[in-house]
Amino acid sequence: MSQPIEHLYRPGLEGIIAGETDISAVQQDSLMYRGYAIEELAEHSPFEETAYLLLHGELPTAAQLKAFGATLDKYRALPSEVIETIRLMPKETPGMDVLRTAVSMAAHFCPISGDEKPALLDRAARILAIVPTIIGARLRFLAGKAPVAPKPGLSHAAQTLYLAFGREPSAIEARLLNLTLVLYAEHEFNASAFAARVTASTLADMYSAIVTGIGTLKGPLHGGANEETIHLMRQFKSGDEAAAWTENAIATKQKISGFGHRVYKNGDHRARILEGEMEKLAPGRSDRHLLDVYFAIKNTVWERKQIHMNVDYPCGLTYYWLNLPIDIYTPLFVASRVSGWSAHYIEQFTNNRIIRPLSRYTGPPERSYVPIAKR
Questions:
Q1: Is 115 a catalytic residue?
Q2: Whether 142 contacts 326, CB under 8 Å
Q3: 8 A C-beta contact, residue 250 and residue 304
Q4: Percent of the chain having pLDDT more than 90?
Q5: Does residue 186 sit in the same domain as residue 254?
Q6: CATH number of 57's domain
Q7: From 38, 238, 244, 356, which residue has the greatest number of CB atoms within 10 Å?
């Protein structure tokens, strides 16, 4: 009689290789999208170019990038039914919940049919295009204003801010949002991308997979951490006060948002890139003390625990100093990461094996059923 196979078990699938991908590589000393280092993309690439790279596998030519931008412009507008649904949602509904519902509803009005590669790429472009429109419409309704129509020709970052506030952003606003979009676009088999791939592996449609990703990203241990970090920093009036709180939090084993990473143990490359740009926003601000708070928490965590920050930590303060409402921090993450999710969907869908891991049973041993009269 053959013996049962012993299966490797690691909680949270830590260290387990669950599949192959040529979209991105997360390593201790580098992060690459399709072979391009994140440092180079952060310095040189507009987000549209990065999104094209993730979806198509290569950087676009000038003509291809122009055509991709035109495709995004073509799909920016939302059906009136979706706009009305956003308007009717309770004002207290979290931004990620609005986004989850609106993307799901927009699927019913998608003009793209078929599951061939060109159709999948076109569908991905439409989803990428409508996320900023959903974010903007929600903010406009909360402000008691009507949504503004998309303005063709704007970059994805500038369009996002234009739809939210009804004005074209300053150069620094557009540049910094573009930077965060590039940094957030893709990160291998993170929780939301893997969840989207599980959905794709059942051969469900792309919208279902993207909604899966949105639901996963909402959690404070994933995308929601950028909101949690600024809530944390705003509690303190000085660096000393923040340092004292952090000492106590470490002593009492409290979770501190924005620190630690399942893969990176030598520091998050994206965080270092964004921190340098974030610091440039501090001069002249009346709340400049938040920079002291930022470094007090960061330095105390490192000195006491040798744990590095992740990209959500500087992102929270960056978005706050760009005067963005906290409720849209994680939706802005979606405005970027939908490019990576779509690339993962296409990769999984077109070379599929259903994702179905095993589990380790920890319940009671086999037992006999007891009739209710004898219990």
A1: no
A2: no
A3: yes
A4: 81
A5: no
A6: 1.10.580.10
A7: 38
Q: Alpha-carbon torsion 281, 283, 288, 291, what sign?
A: positive
Let me know if residue 303 belongs to a domain. Answer: yes
Neighbours of 10 (CB within 10 A): 8
Phi first, then psi: give them for residue 360, nearest 5 degrees.
-100, 115
Catalytic residue among 122, 268, 292, 312: 312
Q: In terms of DSSP H, where are the helices of 143-190?
A: 156-165, 171-184
My answer on whether 247 and 289 are in the same domain is yes
The enclosing H or E element of 63 equals helix 62-75
- Phi, psi (degrees; rounded to nearest 5) at 244: -65, -45
Amino acid of residue 52 = Y
Specify the pLDDT at position 263.
67
Which residue range(s) make up the domain with 58?
18-218+337-350
Number of domains comprising the chain? 2
Residue 308 is a catalytic residue: no
Residues in the chain: 375
Could you tell me if 252 and 198 lie in one domain? no
Dihedral sign computed on CA atoms, order 292, 323, 76, 73? negative
Q: Are 310 and 258 in contact (CB under 8 A)?
A: yes
What is the number of helices (H) and of strands (E) in the chain? Answer: 16, 3
Are residue 33 and residue 166 in the same domain, yes or no?
yes
Token digits of residue 18: 């669950």
From 187, 261, 269, 308, active-site residue:
261
Catalytic site residue from 56, 73, 97, 222: 222
Same domain as 234, residue 167 = no
Specify whether 205 is located in the same domain as 258: no
Residue 344 is a catalytic residue = no
